[in-house]
């Protein structure tokens, strides 16, 4: 078993208001880890997908995180979103 690891995670992300965007959480491990996406601490997606799609609206200015888990090992990263308007 290889503990899960988060590689090349950008914890600060800039997104455009009123557009769709993705959060990325590239995870490695053996067996392949399950990824839990959270918004303000509440699970919003439970998957093996390394990306989470969100529509950028006013209420998205919150804390997101991804947790990767395999067997008893858990690793977590939080994301800060900066919502920008189009010029």
Automatic annotation (TrEMBL):
InterPro entries: Ig-like_dom, Ig-like_dom_sf, Ig-like_fold. It comes from the Eukaryota. Pfam families: Ig_2. Residues 4-82 form the Ig-like domain. This is Ig-like domain-containing protein. It comes from Desmophyllum pertusum. The lineage of its organism: Eukaryota, Metazoa, Cnidaria, Anthozoa, Hexacorallia.
């Amino acid at each position: 078993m290889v503990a899960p690891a988060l590689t090349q995670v950008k914890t600060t992300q800039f997104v455009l208001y009123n557009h769709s965007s993705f959060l990325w959480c590239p995870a490695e491990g053996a067996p392949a880890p399950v990824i839990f996406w959270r918004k303000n601490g509440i699970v919003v997606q439970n998957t093996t997908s390394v990306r989470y799609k969100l529509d950028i609206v006013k209420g998205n200015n919150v804390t997101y995180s991804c947790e990767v888990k395999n067997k008893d090992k858990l690793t977590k990263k939080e994301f800060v979103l900066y919502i920008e308007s189009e010029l």
